[in-house]
Design brief:
35% strand
Length: 436
């Protein structure tokens, strides 16, 4: 067994500190999980209490208390995570891939678009993945090819296994559908006026959160609405359910985490978790005492649910190595807005999604050791100079180097591009002083 496999196995079996505290009667404590090189976009918690985080930095963090083990294999941002009942960890990403982690990490298969959602079947034998390409695929975790379900007619945002061999799926055009996994066409349950982003399933009910802020609960048998939890906040980006404690957590684009008691559908807490930006991911601890959250920060947060009202917002949206934007000269501000989420300025390895820009001037594109480049940049003839960097941001990467991993970024003003280049000249050659 490799050292990676051994370490992963040990970590997956580790008992969670929070669960230990609860068993011993201690109050859970606030904690933060630091180390990613980009925003945290997905969180999952194993039955053992092991926490996994997925980030814009293309990696999965597997946490032993506050110490991460980095699982590398995705070629783009990790956007979906799930644990099975036996502790199987599965991830999906912007690289269209679905990956299973364990003693022998492997790719289960590929979609033709971003993987937005994952769920493991109650028996632990199958994972389902949904994608913006409109497909829903079932993958046997023991190996073998995937099986496609009938297409729902639009990009898929959420899937969840239901009772009696059923599956529920929500789409970008606002449809909520029920599949019989034994066969047949999906049965439409709801046609919401806006896209449905997230689903959560409870005992006899299903909740959904939508782009327009709609947060509603339906009876599984009749399809009748049980509760309408809609507030004037949009979109709904995260849902998490903890059955034993009757809690439903709702995260939205305005940075709030709402906790609902599912016995009477009463809002028990409404916590502003962010000073800036959305709540993208939520997951309860196994005992329901802690809610884990991710957003624009390079950090995941774990708040004790019972004490939420005592905390100030934690997620700021500020990059961990930069000052506040208003305190910066224009060139540095342009770097923060256009480059910092993907690139570090310090020498050596970086946890960010892109290669370090240290020493970028005079360097041929696609040559930073250890970074996995797209075919477009691997072996490119481009040399990074004032002229080529100016052209990159004038035209945008999608036009200047089509086919690269770089997201579309344009700096329209020639003065802003010049200020960025002047800043990069200084910052990309200076010794690291910012903790990157």
């Amino acid at each position: 067994m490799s050292r990676l496999a051994l370490a992963l196995g040990l970590m997956l079996c580790a008992a969670p500190v929070i669960a230990q505290d609860a068993a011993q009667g201690a109050e859970p404590e606030f904690r933060s999980l630091k180390g990613h090189g980009g925003p945290v976009m997905a969180i999952a918690v194993a039955p053992s209490g092991q926490v996994a985080t997925g980030s814009f930095d293309n990696s999965v963090g597997l946490w032993d208390e506050t110490t991460p083990r980095w699982l590398e294999g995705h070629a783009a941002a990790v956007t979906a995570l799930t644990f099975g009942a036996q502790g199987q960890l599965v991830s999906g990403g912007d690289d269209f891939a679905v990956r299973l982690w364990g003693e022998e990490a492997r790719t289960l298969g590929q979609h033709q678009g971003k993987v937005t959602t994952l769920a493991v079947s109650p028996d632990g034998e199958t994972v389902v993945s949904g994608s913006w390409d409109g497909s829903i695929l079932l993958w046997p975790l023991s190996g073998g090819g995937g099986r496609a379900l009938p297409t729902p007619g639009a990009g898929v945002n959420a899937v969840v296994f239901g009772p009696n061999d059923t599956l529920y799926a929500a789409t970008m055009n606002g449809a909520l559908m029920r599949y019989d996994l034994a066969g047949g066409a999906p049965v439409p349950l709801v046609q919401h006026g806006f896209g449905i982003n997230r689903l959560a399933l409870g005992d006899g009910w299903i909740a959904y959160g939508a782009v327009d802020g709609g947060t509603r609960v339906l009876d599984l048998d009749t399809g009748e609405q049980i509760a309408d939890l809609t507030l004037d906040r949009r979109p709904i980006l995260a849902l998490a359910h903890h059955g034993p404690t009757n809690q439903l957590a709702v995260g939205d684009g305005e940075g709030f985490i709402m906790i609902v008691d599912t016995r009477d559908w009463r809002i028990t807490r409404d916590f502003r978790a962010t000073r800036k930006g959305p709540v993208w991911a939520l997951a309860f601890s196994p005992d329901g005492a802690v809610i884990h959250a991710g957003g624009l920060d390079d950090v995941a947060y774990a708040w004790p649910v019972a004490m939420l009202d005592q905390f100030e917002p934690g997620i700021s949206g500020a990059r961990s190595f930069l000052r506040e934007a208003e305190t910066m000269p224009n060139g540095e501000r342009q770097f923060m807005r256009k480059c910092s989420i993907c690139h570090a300025l310090s020498p050596g390895p970086s946890r960010k999604a892109g290669p370090s820009l240290h020493g970028v001037f005079g360097r041929r594109a696609g040559t930073v050791p250890g970074y996995s480049y797209s075919d477009t940049l691997d072996g490119s003839d481009i040399v990074w100079t004032e002229t080529t960097i100016d052209a990159l941001f004038d035209q945008g990467p999608d036009h200047y180097i089509p086919g690269s991993k770089m997201p579309m970024q344009v700096i329209a003003g020639g003065g802003d591009r010049a200020d960025l280049i002047d800043y990069l000249k200084r910052a990309s050659t200076a010794p690291a002083t910012t903790g990157e």
